[in-house]
Specification:
Elements (H helix, E strand, L loop, with lengths): L10 E7 L5 H6 L3 H21 L6 E9 L5 E10 L1 E3 L4 E4 L5 H18 L5 H9 L6 E8 L2 H11 L9 E4 L4 E6 L5 E6 H9 L10 E5 L3 H9 L8 E2 L9 H9 L3
Parallel strand pairs: 5-11
Antiparallel strand pairs: 1-3, 1-6, 2-3, 2-10, 4-5, 7-8, 8-9
Helix pairs in contact: 2-3
């Protein structure tokens, strides 16, 4: 991945999570996970445009994860994102500061809007969730990678497997399976072997379902154009001028507009 895909710019990991009450939709309609991923991409692009004052195309490696720390069903997204993007003229502009709360609000509106359009959620419930102080939508972007090796390490973490064998234990007399979790793996979840099998198999993707996706500068179509034009994907023309972001007072109105 490092040699053939990653651009020589800083990256960051951006994690998107959704409220517990909405997880059931994605558990029984797995195709919705792809749209959840696209909602997060649109939220990031919208935020980048607001920060730069113009549309930017970043490089995004998106990983859909369905599991939590206890092998429970917990759909969320891990993105590896370039710290900025390319404008229409082909210049790369840095966006090195992300406001997680603001991105989470955009993400929430994207996801809820989609569920309303699919008639899985009523408009009234969507507005009620948005009115809560804590909606359950969250974004975390504090993990930064300044070098290619650091970026590759983050990428490997993002595609980790559902469970780690070293965290498993088996109590043969009771027929119980233990799985350690939490900080320093100090806590342990005990379950019978049938529940353990059910938890693990619940994360098997549907036939043909893709859990690692590429967008923007890392999309297959974009990389194909770069190869066809015989342009080195590892060299970017860095913009020197600063773009003007949307004023803070204008963000609230901008987020609420349909997009």
């Amino acid at each position: 991945m490092r040699e053939t895909l990653l651009l020589d710019v800083p990256h960051r990991q951006v994690v998107f999570t959704i409220p517990k009450m909405l997880r059931v939709f994605f558990k029984y309609k797995r195709k919705l996970l792809g749209e959840l991923c696209r909602c997060a991409v649109r939220a990031l692009l919208f935020y980048f445009q607001g920060m730069a004052g113009t549309a930017l195309e970043p490089g995004i490696v998106a990983v859909i994860q369905t599991f939590g720390d206890r092998i429970n069903f917990h759909p969320h997204l891990h993105f590896l994102v370039t710290d900025g993007g390319v404008d229409a003229a082909g210049a790369f502009h840095k966006v090195s500061s992300l406001n997680d709360d603001r991105i989470a609000e955009i993400f929430a509106r994207e996801v809820l809007g989609y569920l309303v359009r699919k008639e899985l959620l009523s408009p009234e419930w969507a507005e009620r969730i948005l009115s809560w102080r804590h909606t359950g939508f969250s974004v975390h972007s504090r993990v930064r990678a300044k070098t290619k090796s650091e970026t590759e390490r983050v990428g490997k973490y993002m595609i980790r497997p559902v469970l780690a064998l070293e965290r498993l234990s088996f109590l043969e007399p009771e027929g119980k399976v233990g799985y350690r979790y939490g900080q320093d793996r100090a806590e342990q979840d005990m379950m019978d072997y049938l529940e353990f099998i059910a938890r693990v198999t619940s994360h098997i993707p549907d036939k043909g379902q893709v859990f690692v996706r590429y967008y923007g500068l890392y999309a297959n179509a974009h990389r194909g154009k770069v190869r066809k034009a015989s342009i080195s994907p590892l060299v970017l023309r860095m913009a020197e001028e600063e773009l003007k972001p949307v004023p803070s007072k204008g963000w609230a109105a901008l987020i609420r507009k349909p997009h």
